[in-house]
Amino acid sequence: MSTRRSEMLSTTPASGPVTRAAVVPHGRIERIGDAADRLRAVAERCGVELVEDTSADLAVVLGGDGTTLRALHRYLGTEVPCLGVNFGRVGFLTSVDGGQLEAGIEQAFRGGYEVIDLPTLRGHDGLHDLVAINDIVLTSGILGRMVILEWSVDGTSLGEVGCDGAILATPTGSTAYNLSAGGPVLAWGADAFVLSFASPHSLHARSMVLGEEHRVEVHNRSDDVPLQVVQDGHTMGDVPPGGRMIVGMGEQRAQLARLAGTSFFSRYRETFTA
């Protein structure tokens, strides 16, 4: 087992009690009600200073999965882990229910959390670099129009597929659009990513799970339909007919904090099988 893989499979306990915490709220404050005031009260009781910079020990996210993804991007490369308090619908990336904010945050401020490194994807279209924590989606740029995609792995073409688009997802993102498209769930800690096709016009198009050493090239073979590039839910541009996107696992890792005693499998059970 390589050193890198051992590190990815392990979680890191908190280094100690939190003294400085950043706050990342949902973009629509009405969605979280008085959560910010409740958090400030907990911080005051615990002697934790609330700050706005990257010198924080912990970033507390008040929202759902979208807000947590935004926070993970914001603190990517800073060593500040992000702990989500769920005020959204699914909240798979979060660790604390909104109704249990006080108890959950007090536990975290005492140092009762652990940090898991989440892998990223790096995409390149010849001009721009993308870094995604969830997924890079290449979808038809014209509603209702099919695209023709040729895909290859490490330089070997695996044919063309008529479809609505392609989804390249990390283990974190495998439970998002990839899951809805019928792709497999990758457990956190897997050193892999997955390629799935959205609504393929074929009985033989199947998802493929790939490792950190693999590079996928997706060529737009459509005559007149561009591919819209979506990174973690945000439109980033187009791949024109004849263009391509190269995707592989990135070097950066996002840091997600979760309360001690929770796990990927317990969250999976609560979210998808309840």
Describe this protein with a few key phrases.
disordered N terminus, 274 residues, Tumour Suppressor Smad4, alpha+beta
Question: Can you give a write-up of this model?
Answer:
This protein is an alpha+beta fold and 274 residues long. The chain folds into two domains: 3-118 and 253-273, Rossmann fold (3-Layer(aba) Sandwich), CATH 3.40.50; 120-251, Sandwich (Tumour Suppressor Smad4), CATH 2.60.200. It is built from six helices and 18 strands. The strands form two sheets. Strands 1, 2, 3, 4, 5, 6, 7, 8, 10, 11, 15 and 18 form a twelve-stranded mixed β-sheet that branches. Strands 14-13-12-9-16-17 form a six-stranded antiparallel β-sheet, with no helix packed on it. Helix 2 (35-46) packs parallel to helix 4 (101-109). The chain is elongated, with a radius of gyration of 20 Å.
In short:
The protein has 274 residues and is of the alpha+beta class. Helix content is 19%, strand content 40%.
Set out the fold topology:
Elements: H1 3-9, E1 12-13, E2 20-25, H2 35-46, E3 49-51, E4 58-63, H3 65-74, E5 82-86, E6 96-97, H4 101-109, E7 113-124, E8 129-132, E9 135-140, E10 147-153, E11 156-163, E12 165-169, H5 177-180, E13 192-198, E14 208-211, E15 216-220, E16 227-231, E17 234-239, E18 244-259, H6 264-273
Parallel strand pairs: 2-3, 2-4, 4-5, 5-6, 5-18
Antiparallel strand pairs: 1-7, 7-8, 7-18, 9-12, 9-16, 10-11, 10-15, 12-13, 13-14, 15-18, 16-17
